[in-house]
C-alpha cells in the first residue's frame, strides 16, 4: 500500500511537471498520467470512472455547443462593433467596452470561449484603427479571468467546485462572488486605462472609419440568431433555477444544447461537435483519473 502511494505521488508530480513544462500537449500528458494510475493498479477502472465529474464535462460540452452555434450568427462581432461605435471610435473607450463585454460574457458563457470569440473582432477593430492589439488582448484575458469567477459556469474550477459542493448553486456563486468581481473590475479598468492609454492613440480620420462600419452586415443568419438567443436565454434562466428544478447544471446546459441542435438540424450538429474543445474535455478526464489515484 505504501509503495502504491509513493508510486501514485510520483506519477502525479511527474505529470504536473510535464504539464508545466509544456513540452508535450497537456491533454496527452494528463491522459497518460490517468492511464498509468489504472494500468499500474493504483486505482481500478471502476473507481477511476466514478471519479470523473461528468457534471463538469457535461456543462462544458453543452455550453461549448450553444456558444459555437451562436457564434455562427455573427452576434459577438455585432456586439463588439456596436460598442466600438458607441465609443465614437476612441481606442481607450473601445478598450474599456471590450473589457466589460469580455467580463460579462465570461461570466455567462465560459472565459476561454469568450476570449476566443473576442480576439478576431479585436484584431479587426485594431487593424481598422491602426493601433497595437496587444493592450486590448492583455486586458481582455485578465477581464475574462475576473469575470469568469462571478458565476458557476464562468470558469472550469467554479464548475468543479459547484459539482463537488451541492450547496454552492448558481445563485450562491453570484451572491457571493459577483459583487467582489464588480469591485475588482471597477478598480482594474482605470488601471488598464492608465497603463495603456498612450499606446493606443489613433487619428480622427481612423476613428471616423469605425463609425462608417455597418454593424448589421455582420449578422450572418437572423433566423439562427433568434433561435440561438432564445435557447441561450432559456439556458441561463435554467441555471438560475436549477436548484429549484432539482436539476444539475450539466443537465440544463446539455438540454439547451440539444434543443438548439434540434432546431438547427443535423448540419449544425456536425459543425458544432467539431468546435467542441475536445482537448480540454479529455484534459479534465485525465486530471480526474489522475487525482483519483491519490484519494
From TrEMBL:
TM region positions: 6-21, 28-45, 57-80, 92-109, 177-196, 224-241, 276-294
Topological type in the membrane: Multi-pass membrane protein
Major localization class: membrane
Name of a matching Pfam family: CitMHS
GO cellular component terms listed in the entry, alphabetical order: plasma membrane
The keyword DNA repair appears for this protein: no
Family classification: Belongs to the CitM (TC 2.A.11) transporter family.
Keywords: Cell membrane, Membrane, Transmembrane, Transmembrane helix, Transport
Subcellular location: Cell membrane
Domain Citrate transporter-like: 16-294
Domain of life assignment: Bacteria
GO MF entry, a single one: arsenite transmembrane transporter activity
Keyword hit for Protein biosynthesis: no
Protein name as catalogued: Citrate transporter-like domain-containing protein
InterPro entries: Arsenical_pump_ArsB, Cit_transptr-like_dom, Diverse_Ion_Transporter
Amino acid at each position: 500500500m505504501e509503495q502504491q502511494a509513493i508510486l501514485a505521488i510520483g506519477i502525479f508530480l511527474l505529470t504536473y511537471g510535464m504539464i508545466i513544462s509544456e513540452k508535450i500537449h497537456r491533454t496527452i500528458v494528463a491522459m497518460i498520467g490517468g492511464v498509468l494510475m489504472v494500468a499500474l493498479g493504483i486505482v481500478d477502472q471502476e473507481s477511476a470512472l466514478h471519479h470523473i465529474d461528468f457534471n463538469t464535462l457535461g456543462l462544458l460540452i453543452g455550453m461549448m455547443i450553444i456558444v459555437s452555434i451562436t457564434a455562427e450568427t455573427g452576434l459577438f462581432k455585432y456586439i463588439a462593433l456596436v460598442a466600438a461605435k458607441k465609443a465614437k471610435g476612441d481606442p481607450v473607450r473601445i478598450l474599456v467596452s471590450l473589457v466589460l463585454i469580455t467580463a460579462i460574457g465570461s461570466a455567462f458563457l465560459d472565459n476561454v470561449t469568450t476570449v476566443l470569440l473576442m480576439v478576431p473582432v479585436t484584431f479587426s477593430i485594431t487593424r481598422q484603427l491602426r493601433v497595437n492589439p496587444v493592450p486590448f488582448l492583455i486586458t481582455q484575458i485578465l477581464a475574462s479571468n475576473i469575470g469568469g469567477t462571478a458565476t458557476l459556469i464562468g470558469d472550469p474550477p467554479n464548475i468543479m467546485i459547484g459539482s463537488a459542493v451541492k450547496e454552492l448553486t448558481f445563485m450562491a456563486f453570484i451572491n457571493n462572488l459577483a459583487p467582489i468581481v464588480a469591485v475588482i473590475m471597477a478598480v482594474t479598468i482605470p488601471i488598464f486605462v492608465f497603463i495603456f492609454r498612450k499606446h493606443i492613440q489613433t487619428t480622427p480620420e481612423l476613428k471616423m472609419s469605425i463609425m462608417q462600419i455597418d454593424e448589421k452586415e455582420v449578422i450572418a443568419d437572423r433566423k439562427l440568431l433568434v433561435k440561438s438567443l432564445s435557447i441561450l436565454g432559456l439556458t441561463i434562466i435554467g441555471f438560475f433555477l436549477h436548484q429549484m428544478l432539482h436539476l444539475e447544471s450539466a443537465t440544463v446546459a446539455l438540454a439547451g444544447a440539444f434543443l438548439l441542435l434540434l432546431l438547427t438540424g443535423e448540419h449544425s450538429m456536425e459543425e458544432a461537435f467539431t468546435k467542441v474543445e475536445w482537448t480540454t474535455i479529455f484534459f479534465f478526464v485525465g486530471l480526474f483519473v489522475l487525482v483519483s489515484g491519490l484519494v
